[in-house]
Design brief:
The protein has about 90 residues and is mainly α. It is built from 4 helices and no strands.
């Protein structure tokens, strides 16, 4: 039943992997083919997660755009206003 479920979801079965490896002159047992598939799935998952994390970090660290925050990156947020009637203390 498990092999049928994996095929429905598009996953390769250990039997299919064993046949594919045999076609490439690599003799493995059914258990070894299953372990190879588990390792490749883990490697693919880690690779995708690292790629997505890198993309997210690039997006978070981009420069501030004027159109998005209605200001340019190098300008001051609060400008000093001159007080014409204030006396200089220093």
């Amino acid at each position: 039943m498990r092999n049928e479920d994996e095929n429905e979801r598009g996953k390769m079965t250990a039997e299919q992997a064993m046949k594919m490896l045999k076609d490439e002159n690599v003799d493995v047992t059914l258990e070894q083919a299953g372990k190879v598939l588990d390792f490749l799935r883990l490697l693919a998952k880690v690779t995708v997660l690292n790629y997505l994390k890198k993309k997210r970090d690039e997006k978070d660290s981009r420069f501030i755009c004027e159109s998005e925050y209605r200001r340019a990156g190098g300008k001051r947020l609060l400008t000093k206003k001159s007080r014409g009637n204030a006396k200089k203390v220093l």
